[in-house]
Design a protein that fits this description.
The structure holds 2 protein chains of 2 kinds. By secondary structure, chain A is an alpha+beta fold. Chain A is 33% helix and 15% strand. The chains are: A alpha+beta, B mainly alpha.
Chain lengths: 435, 567
């Protein structure tokens, strides 16, 4: 510790108990407040605020400070330089930090080298974009909530930006429960007269016309194509909830009508299943579309089918796989957590059926004994994609109109940690990865 | 996927049940058959219950029998076994609404939506002018949360029947489910005209309206003068936390509208929800309509609980006129003493106690003496309070005596008497905090400050607490914090800030310093000074990291940063 070797200020009175207490207090003060070269941000159960810890690491990167991610070491801890500004932020946000001197750090590195752990250098704060409609409240999207709570900067983009601007300026794009089939999650069935639905439909239709597309499904297919190009050229894409399943369907259906008549005025192609083009999707293949316009489901990719009462499957818990940190650093980064088993949560798409996954996809989390998985990752072109099923990890039954999740009540949420792992892992991309 | 064909086992069980029915030789009367089936069902003997309900069917009670079978088969997850039974029964009774309703329910619970739709179409085909099929199917879809599908059914009804007049309830429920609150209110208003018994259903449906949409519901219901609409609005306001508005909606009802019963229901609900003044108003109106001592006394109790002792006195006086002296002593006098004590009219309370004389036992007199003593304290007459108490109790440890000692500045005696207070109001907590903080045994300034607080003179109380801080140096930050709390309650922001600033700057190591930072920051946030508020919250977190108030400061900081409005 940095206090070692510093002469302890001893009082004049030799009274043993008082002097001892005072000296002990001084040592304790020095241990917490004197500069110590490095600060370890533990991410195990000792951490008081896991989610804000990601913001601390992001802030260090943003300030150009060298930051390391110790995979599998104490729940995936971070190492940041000892800096008054970072200490102050940690104190304000209730983040536990542990000052570490060079000797202690050496011991930590030895421990990492000897076990299934690795130290990954994070080089630069990733530039983040969130695909979300204008005027959408932050609580409608778990990623936006997580980023805002943790204090990570992002840019909000929507169809116009995706179609017209240069997406390569972003390292990471997040999609949430957007329906890329253009059927607006089939909410037409239950909400067609509700003002917010009407506004949403009119807005999307206006966007389609502005960009020269005849319908919302046509617009969303074009957006899906642009997002695929973004990944192919080296971007990182993360999708949750219905965005994952519908993005796959939209990419597969570039030349076939898979939207119901209520969304584009024409019926679905009766042979749509056979005409889907799966080689151009990221993670799924061979899915069968839901042909019933009155059935609130898109395809058989989703295992839980939450909005179809007769098919709805109950929630369980999913287990995160433990990867080799030294040989699979990417997968390891994505599953860093202080919990190995996480309670499941519903979304428009809650899970992904194993029999629809492409062979190259990496399963990151699965439910024991179930035919579905929760969390998958893969490469496409020069980039990569990650899908996490479900809408909000701390609101398992999320319903339309439900109150927003207050993350200050869930600072240790293991589900939200998965989201933030994704945000941070592009920071490590310059390191030659073995996966 | 999860669509599956009907399993074989349930059909075999259904066959067994039929055999059991055939073999049964005991001929019981229909009522006894139903009772036996219910007993078997409640005892969880599902297989036996199936046979028993089939016997009920055979005996001719089709509705009871089929509903019983539906419940039991649902318990066994064998709903599909009911379908053959329904097919046979519908062939005999093609227009039976119960049978059609059960058929739709079973098909939907099995996920056979297309078959349910076909069954509905068949029912409509057989009874083309009857609203029942539409009502049943739309109602079931609504209870599933499938508002869009229900809307489709109701639009079909409108086309087939010429209007949805016969389906007003379903239309109202649908609009509420769609979040069209004004339209839902209109539909319920119209439904209530013909069927006033739907009041509860209307309240249940409309109470879910979010705060931003409630005015649109009010705008529909307020102009309507019919009793059912008024009752619905009254109940809604009560549920929405505006009980006085609820009472105003009901107050205009007349005897012809069965006002008394409506007011009685409202008063009970208001009492249950702790809306005491609305309850008082309703009970007082009932008393005016049908004068009775019990109603007037109940209204007086509600007035006291609502903090309006003056109106309680008027109501007790009205009750007294209808009570014999013994009843008056037992029922009216306790309320009068409480009210007079709260108003600081201790002399009148003493007179009433004197007049009651020997009708009161010693224990009651002692209890009244304490209340009278509080009355004198509120009037600022500590000596008379002491005298009132001395007449009934000589116990030095008595809590009221301790309070009087505190007002006298006798901190040692107050400390001894307040060791185990009977309740923990903020005044009690403040007094105990001070007495345990200071080592001083006397302080006239502290006594004067607490006495001013008891009299409700907050301006004097704040000034005297601040003055006392100079007298009791070991409790100075606590006394300044008390002064600041009183100033905040008086909405005197500048003096409150000055006091907090003094605490933070001069008593940085005191436990009140963190509280001062937090309250100071909150006040700045309410005033829209977010920069100042952030500075205070950050100062608290960084300066007092071990304080129990740090989590609250972090939440406040989070709220300021996210731009949330201050509460």
């Amino acid at each position: 510790m940095s206090c070692v070797g510093r002469p302890a200020p001893v009082g004049r009175r030799p009274s043993v108990p008082g002097g001892f207490v005072r000296a002990a207090l001084l040592v304790a003060w020095a241990a917490t407040s004197a500069p110590a070269q490095h600060l370890l941000v533990p991410m195990d159960d000792a951490q008081q605020n896991h989610l804000k810890s990601y913001g601390l690491a992001f802030g260090a990167l943003k300030a150009g400070r060298k930051t390391e991610w110790f995979l599998n070491y104490r729940g995936g801890s971070f190492l940041i330089p000892d800096d008054p500004a970072l200490r102050r932020k940690a104190a304000l946000d209730g983040i536990r930090i542990e000052p570490v001197d060079d000797a202690r750090l050496l011991a930590v590195r030895k421990e990492i080298a000897a076990a299934n752990m690795d130290a990954i250098v994070l080089e630069k704060a990733p530039t983040i974009a969130i695909y979300a409609p204008p005027k959408s409240p932050p609580w409608d999207d778990a990623v936006t909530l997580a980023l805002r709570y943790a204090g990570l900067e992002y840019t909000q983009i929507w169809d116009d930006e995706v179609l017209k601007s240069d997406l390569s300026k972003f390292d990471w794009i997040h999609l949430h429960h957007e329906d890329f089939t253009g059927q607006m999650n089939k909410l037409y069935l239950g909400f067609r007269d509700v003002p917010w639905f009407i506004e949403q439909r009119d807005r999307d239709f206006a966007t389609a016309q502005r960009n020269g597309y005849p319908s919302i499904p046509a617009l969303k297919k074009a957006v899906a194509g642009r997002l695929r190009d973004f990944v192919e050229k080296g971007g990182f894409l993360f999708a949750m909830c219905g965005a994952s399943e519908t993005l796959e369907l939209a990419m597969a259906a570039q030349n076939v009508d898979i939207a119901g008549p209520f969304s584009d005025g024409s019926p679905m192609d009766p042979d749509a299943d056979q005409r889907l083009d799966w080689p151009h999707t990221f993670g799924f293949q061979g899915a069968r579309l839901e042909m019933g316009a009155g059935v609130n489901s898109m395809s058989d990719i989703d295992g839980h089918q939450v909005n179809v009462p007769a098919r709805r499957q109950p929630l369980g818990a999913f287990t995160l796989f433990n990867f080799s940190a030294k040989f699979d650093p990417v997968a390891s980064m994505l599953v860093q957590n202080h919990r190995g088993v996480v309670p499941d949560f519903y979304g428009v798409t809650t899970s992904f059926m194993k029999n629809r996954l492409k062979p190259g996809a990496t399963i990151l989390a699965t439910e024991e004994g179930a035919p579905w998985v929760k969390y998958v990752h893969g490469d496409y072109g020069k980039g990569s994609w990650t899908y996490l099923g479900g809408h909000d990890p701390e609101d398992p039954q999320h319903n339309i109109g439900a109150p927003p999740t207050d993350l200050s009540l869930h600072p240790n949420s293991p589900g939200y940690r998965l989201i933030l792992n994704n945000v941070l892992f592009p920071a490590a991309r310059k390191k030659p990865l073995k996966t | 996927m999860t669509h599956c064909s009907a399993p074989r086992v349930p059909r075999a069980l259904a066959l067994l049940a039929t055999l059991a029915l055939t073999c049964s030789t005991v001929a019981l009367p229909q009522g006894a058959l139903v009772s036996r089936a219910l007993d078997l069902e409640q005892g969880g003997r599902w297989r036996d219950a199936i046979a028993a309900w089939r016997q009920v069917l055979t005996a001719g009670d089709v509705a009871q029998g089929v509903l019983g079978l539906e419940r039991v088969f649902t318990q066994l997850a064998m709903e599909d076994s009911l379908l053959p039974v329904l097919d046979s029964l519908l062939a005999q009774r093609p227009t039976d609404r119960t049978l059609h309703g059960v058929q739709l329910r079973v098909l939907r619970s099995l996920g056979r939506e297309r078959d349910a739709r076909k069954a509905f179409d068949e029912w409509v085909r057989m009874q083309p002018g009857d609203p029942a099929p539409y009502r049943e199917y739309a109602g079931q879809l609504l209870s599933d949360g499938r508002a869009g599908a229900a809307d489709t059914v109701l639009q079909a009804a409108s086309r087939a029947l010429g209007s949805t007049k016969a389906l007003t309830i379903e239309v109202a429920q649908l609009r509420a489910a769609l979040g069209l609150w004004a339209a839902a209110a209109v539909a319920w208003r119209d439904a209530l005209v013909a069927e006033s018994y739907l009041e509860s259903a209307a309240v249940y449906s409309l109470q879910a309206a979010p705060p931003g949409d409630r005015d649109s519901v009010r705008a529909v219901l307020r102009p309507v003068t019919t009793a059912p609409a008024r009752k619905v609005l009254g109940a809604l306001e009560l549920q929405w936390g505006a009980p006085r508005d609820g009472w105003r909606a009901l107050a205009a009802l007349t005897a012809a509208d069965s006002a008394f019963a409506s007011w009685s229901d409202f008063a009970e609900d208001a009492e249950r929800l702790g809306a005491w003044l609305a309850a008082r108003d309703a009970l007082a109106a009932m008393h005016r309509e049908r004068p009775s001592a019990s109603l007037a006394l109940r209204a007086a109790g509600a007035a006291l609980a609502g903090g309006e002792p003056a109106s309680a006195l008027e109501l007790v006086a009205a009750a007294r006129a209808r009570l014999q002296p013994p009843q008056a002593h037992a029922q009216a006098l306790p309320l009068e003493i409480r009210a007079l004590a709260q108003l600081g009219r201790a002399a009148e309370a003493e007179r009433l106690i004197r007049e009651a004389g020997d009708a009161l036992d010693a224990r009651t007199k002692q209890s009244y003496a304490r209340q009278v003593a509080w009355g004198w304290i509120r009037a600022g007459q500590v000596e008379r309070a002491r005298a009132a108490l001395a007449g009934a109790s000589g116990d030095d440890e008595d809590e009221v005596t301790a309070w009087i000692a505190l007002y006298d500045g006798d901190l040692a005696r107050a400390r001894a008497g307040l060791k185990r207070p009977s309740d923990a109001t903020s005044d009690v907590v403040n007094a105990i905090a001070l007495l345990s903080r200071t080592r001083a045994d006397s302080s006239r300034a502290v006594g004067a400050a607490f006495l001013a607080l008891a009299r409700g003179d907050s301006a004097q109380a704040a000034a005297r607490f601040e003055r006392a801080a100079g007298e009791l140096s070991d409790a100075a930050p606590l006394l300044l914090a008390l002064a600041a709390r009183v100033e905040t309650a008086r909405r005197q922001e500048r003096p409150a800030i000055a006091l907090w600033q003094r605490i933070v700057q001069r008593f940085a190591a005191a436990p009140e310093a963190a509280e001062a930072d937090l309250e100071w920051g909150r006040l700045l946030r309410r005033r829209g000074d977010t920069g100042g508020a952030v500075e205070r919250f950050e100062h608290l977190i960084l300066t007092y990291p071990q304080s129990a108030l740090v989590p609250q400061a972090r939440r406040e900081l989070e709220a300021v940063r996210s731009g949330a409005a201050a509460e």
